[in-house]
Amino acid sequence: MSKALGALQQLRGLVTAASPSRGSVLELPPRRALLYVPGDSEKKIGKAAELGVDVVCLDLEDAVAQGRKDAARETAAKALAELSFGRSERAVRVNAVQSGHCEEDLEAVLSGATLPDALVDTVEHVRFLFDRVKGLLGPRLQGEAPPALITMCESGMGLLNLRQVFEACLARTNVLRLEACILGADDLQASLGLKRQQGTDDTLFARRWVVLHARAFGLQPIDQVYIDYKNSHGLQAEALEGRSIGMAGKQVIHPSQIAPVQDAFSPDPHEVEEARQLMQAFEEHQMQGKGAFTFRDRMIDQPTYLQARNLLQFAARVGQV
Amino acid sequence: MSKALGALQQLRGLVTAASPSRGSVLELPPRRALLYVPGDSEKKIGKAAELGVDVVCLDLEDAVAQGRKDAARETAAKALAELSFGRSERAVRVNAVQSGHCEEDLEAVLSGATLPDALVDTVEHVRFLFDRVKGLLGPRLQGEAPPALITMCESGMGLLNLRQVFEACLARTNVLRLEACILGADDLQASLGLKRQQGTDDTLFARRWVVLHARAFGLQPIDQVYIDYKNSHGLQAEALEGRSIGMAGKQVIHPSQIAPVQDAFSPDPHEVEEARQLMQAFEEHQMQGKGAFTFRDRMIDQPTYLQARNLLQFAARVGQV
Amino acid sequence: MSKALGALQQLRGLVTAASPSRGSVLELPPRRALLYVPGDSEKKIGKAAELGVDVVCLDLEDAVAQGRKDAARETAAKALAELSFGRSERAVRVNAVQSGHCEEDLEAVLSGATLPDALVDTVEHVRFLFDRVKGLLGPRLQGEAPPALITMCESGMGLLNLRQVFEACLARTNVLRLEACILGADDLQASLGLKRQQGTDDTLFARRWVVLHARAFGLQPIDQVYIDYKNSHGLQAEALEGRSIGMAGKQVIHPSQIAPVQDAFSPDPHEVEEARQLMQAFEEHQMQGKGAFTFRDRMIDQPTYLQARNLLQFAARVGQV
Asked: Per the database record, which ranges form the HpcH/HpaI aldolase/citrate lyase domain (chains A, B, C) (predicted)?
């Protein structure tokens, strides 16, 4: 077992003693694209369920006007109960704890026979959220896997507190399984006083900060929304940049954004092929008693081998092998 | 109220229970340019007071040679008592706590009838500074607003300890009101072993780090000095970069630097106009029960609205509307 | 004494009460290049000892296959005991604590009459490492200086825990003297999910993070390996970039990498000359009672003086003056 994985499992062992240990972030479901749909639009939800996107997120928060919150809860609960989402994961974005709407959101989406696969929350108040979910699910937590939780980070203080928030959540994986963290870039830009400019790297520091903290805890970091939804080149560039800095996926707000984003977060065929050859060469050298060797002018050792193996596993997961 | 603001107020509520809550960093006085003048030069202080710069900072520290400290204290105290600074805020940069000069600096500038509007300090020792100020101001703290405090961060350990320093200061806003944090780039470069190069981004990481921490606590981050004071293009570029990464202002060391810097940290007219139109459109949609909508091909929701409102408020504050 | 140094010494005073205080990171031995050689290759070790590299690191870990660990321990111990390394520092890279190999590694390299000058470790378990070393060295710790320790940081959690790891090590400098920290970029890329791309700055955030933490504690940050060892231009560019962001040295994996790397981490002659002139001008102004002055159109004060002095001291140390 590699050192990197060893350290990870150990840490998770510390903070998630109650949960089964997990080998790697790659065992989590792919969340390359996470599509928001307004929770009060039955028509848009119906369409979203057929798009083959990794995650459909029914939004009860920013996409729903104040006077439509009740309608959105009802529509979202009905969709969870009656609609088939195919291979897409069903997530619900509930309102922030201090908004006054969160509790009713949780009741609506957790009281049905079919639980959402994931909750997206801003988690300013971890304890409140977990206590409410525990109360609402009660004995169901004995028999069913708890819903996955995806937190949102969208303020300067949220960035500073990421570690504490993750540790607090991972201490109670019997209630909600924290698996990913979303960067909410618009709120964050306002909070950090960043000037809005397309094409600059104003959010790169914050995005790398989120990647560092999420990956350190074995979680999937989910990148910011690209709001100029008619600019497909810009979207593709930002998605590739996100993958390059360690993001596992990206929020999308329009069906046309799904394919470019899911492609960007999938391995290229030539990467898959190189990884396969590298693994084979590594295993041959290992059997001959050589720990490090040269492959295409690069020194190869255990960590490089690990990267290749991870890439192949993920390619298989998203149907590329 | 937006989530970002909500989280901010709450945190400040926790750490500054004794202070009146504050809506936003925009209620702080503008500190787009902070001009240093040697505390021992009556002539330079007199000229600085007439330049219309947001902050005039009488420097008792680096700009004053060891043998001139007493003269500088006397000159600075006299200027505070007798000179009109117009709309400029009067700040005093005291020597570091461990220099042996700090205590006398505080006595000189806090014993007069007219207190400085802001103290700039390096705050290696928060407790010492606050205790001394409390002792010197005594009963005056009942009747007058405590002076504002601007801390300096200028070492690697200073960066690592920013959060703890801010929390320690914000716990005692009845003595000094922490409102801003200056990045002292020259000391910082020495401390971090950065190679001095004009035009590279060697300090960008540290600057973004300061922005993140300051903004998280609702404070104004003040950017590094641009020392090549004859290069106006370089100055303008660095000032715009500072604004883009979230700085609220920049230290200046020459009168010719004031206008370009204050311009760089003010909104452009077309930004003001776009913000006005965006706010209007948002409020119309909100009344029609729509939470998110399209404006110039961008998806607009609450956070975007908040950014536009902030921009308009600030423009009014610096006389641009 | 400058504020930056003052803050540093004070902090170190807090965390390393038992150790002699130290003026600056420049009093540490130069570690511009750190060359790995497989611990089981007597021939390669012999050659490495003659190359004039600042540090020769006998690798018992990644460069040694599982079945060769015993042979490597024996060969490394023999080299430490019998071979002259000239002016090169002798370091040993032991296996990670949780690998099951670490204890035997320590026994092999610490039981000889000649201790290694430095141990390189991943330090997931600081306490275990220090306890074992203390047990193995026992009474020798009274008479001899404890070995220097260079830790490796190579996972997201490792980055998040840098401060805690440094503080834990620096509390026990009577057992091992923590002096430097290596960035293990390959493992780190796997841990953070970074996409492998030559020529991009995927690891820059992590590298700056390591620099910030190491420099804050007065330690030397040692940069990542450049694995494409036939590309000398790429190597030179990355080495210069490392120096520019504050790295003190770089790991190397091939003899041909030593000279370009050690050059990159040494001052240029014109820098040395400028520093000399600047120091002279500063001291003249200081004697005339002027704290800040203009030198080649730049405002010069104490911090700038400090940078110049540091540069001259280091140049002397590596034989450039």
From this structure: 32-255
Q: Tell whether B302 lies on the interface with C, counting CB pairs under 8 A.
A: no
Catalytic residue among A62, A131, A268, A301: A301
d(CA B257, CA A124): 42
Specify the pLDDT at position B271: 85
Asked if the model's pLDDT at residue C76 lies above 90, the reply is: yes
Distance CA C154, CA C194 (A): 13
Split at pLDDT 50, 70, 90, the class of A120 is confident
| DSSP summary character for residue A67 | G
Instruction: Say which residues have a Cβ less than 8 Å from residue A129's Cβ, sequence separation at least 6.
Output: A97, A102, A106, A121, A123, A176
Do A88 and A233 lie in one domain? The reply is: yes
A163 contact C CB<8A: yes
- C155 at A interface, C-beta within 8 A: yes
Which residue in chain B has the smallest CA separation from C248?
Answer: B193
Nearest to B297 among A64, A196, A230 (CB): A230
Residues B156 and B299 in one domain: no
pLDDT value of residue B200: 54
Cβ distance of C124 and A301 shorter than 8 Å: no
Question: How close B315 comes to chain A (CA, Å)?
Answer: 14
**Structure-block tokens of residue A131:** 């206590």
Residue C15 banded pLDDT, cuts 50, 70, 90: very low
Domain count across chain A: 2
Asked if residue A253 and residue A277 are part of one domain, the reply reads: no
Which chain C residues are Cβ-neighbours of A221 within 8 angstroms?
A: 193
Helix (H, G, I), strand (E, B) or coil at C190: helix
The CATH number for B170's domain is 3.20.20.60
Domain end, chosen from C265, C282, C300, is at C265
Of all residues in chain C, what percent carry a pLDDT higher than 90? 54
Active site (annotated) includes residue A131:
no
Answer whether C96 sits within 8 Å of A217, measured CB to CB. Answer: no
**Residue pointed to by tokens 């060359």:** C35
d(CA B13, CA B35): 32
d(CA A292, CA C293): 56
Residue in chain C closest to A293 (alpha carbons) equals C63
**Does C72 lie at the interface with B, CB-CB under 8 angstroms?**
no
Q: What is the dihedral of CA B206, B212, B214, B218, to 10 degrees?
A: 170
Q: What string of DSSP letters covers A158-181?
A: HHHTHHHHHHHHHTTTTT-EEEEE
B131 labeled part of a ligand binding site: no
* Domain match, C220 and C279 both: no
**pLDDT bucket at C160, cuts 50 / 70 / 90:** very high
C235 & C304 share domain? no
- d(Cα A171, Cα A14) in Å, to the nearest integer? 9
CA angle centred on C109, ends C24 and C184, rounded to 5°: 55
Least CB–CB distance from A186: residue in B10, B289, B303: B303
Count of Cβ atoms closer than 10 Å to residue C294 Cβ: 12
- Range of C240's domain? 3-265
Alpha helix ranges (H) inside chain C: 3-15, 42-48, 69-82, 102-110, 126-137, 140-143, 156-160, 162-170, 185-192, 204-216, 232-244, 258-264, 269-287, 302-317
Asked whether residue C93 falls in the same domain as residue C186, the answer is: yes
Asked whether residue A27 falls in the same domain as residue A109, the answer is: yes
End-to-end CA gap in chain A: 24
Query: Is residue A115 pLDDT above 50, yes or no?
Result: yes
B315 in helix, strand or coil?
helix
Sequential DSSP letters for C76-124? HHHHHHH---TTSEEEEEPPPGGGS-HHHHHHHHHSSSS--SEEEE--S
Q: Do both B33 and B145 map to the same domain? A: yes
Question: What b-and-e string marks burial along C93-125, b requiring 16 or more CB atoms within 10 Å of the CB?
Answer: bbbbbbbebbbebbebbbeeeebbbbbbbbbbb
Q: Calculate the CA A43 to chain-centre distance.
A: 25
